[in-house]
Amino acid sequence: MIDWNYKNENQIFSICEREGVPYLSFKALEATGLVKNGFSTRLGGASKGKFATMNFSYSRGDEPQDVLENFTRMARALEVDRDRMVVSYQTHTVNVRRVTKEDEGKGVIRERDYRDVDGLITNVPGITLVTFYADCVPLYLVDTVHRAIGLSHSGWRGTVNRMGQITLDAMGEAFGTDPKDVVACIGPSICRDCFEVGAEVAEAFGSAFAPKWHSLLFSPNGKPGKYQLDLWKANEIIFLEAGVRPENIHTTNICTMCNSGYLFSHRRVGEERGNLGAFLCLK
Ligand SMILES: [Zn+2]
What we know:
By secondary structure, this protein is α+β, with helices and mostly antiparallel strands. The chain is 24% helix and 26% strand. It has helices at residues 27-32, 64-78, 156-160, 163-175, 199-208, 214-217, 231-242, 266-269, and strands spanning 13-18, 21-26, 35-40, 85-87, 96-98, 119-122, 128-133, 137-143, 148-154, 182-186, 196-198, 218-220, 226-229, 249-251, 276-282. It has a six-stranded mixed beta sheet with strand order 1-2-3-15-7-4. Strand 8 (137-143) and strand 9 form a beta hairpin.
């Protein structure tokens, strides 16, 4: 039984456990009836040591057979096809890839033939999009009219460059998505209280967002040149300004760093860690 440390009382998530694998599921995405969704924890996997136990990164030094076993267990828990999962290649870009049948299994059971991809979109049922986290922000998008999905990695760089907007634009181009038909969920990631940044990062947000938002987004924390930055609020504003209806935006109340016993947090442990996974599959 996980004793989550919540930032507010909103009932955003279903706390699920299937086949011995605990995970978080957005109630708003479940309510669409169109998708399966999940966000992993550190629990229920096969990895050991600093990767214990549910690590989805092949590139941080973990045993490949353990990572593959973790994908197998997560696929079983979510009741999706492991060999139809498609994985990002995250380098803090705002590049979005349209995933097709030809991509099935890439990054899980076979090599990726692309790189520098932080966002994935598809309208193919049964393909599971997968992105990775350890404090950065997962963005889950479901177009309920055109039956299309998007899943994007948005750290502070992605956020300041409006990854949420860019993913919606890519869905618009590929599938005719209108933001007013989209359910947008902002997933587990670092909270404002935990996220201290330097002046250059605060200034980047100051330039990227209208002055009326600044006090909502960042504030000096009393240390010279240091600020607390709210990536959750920034992504909400991006979705609002993109045309997503306020009632269709759902923001995590679980912080990776406040819950580092259950979630990998880069700010808590640095490079000595595994990666969490976000999963989204059109039924
Ligand atoms: Zn926190």
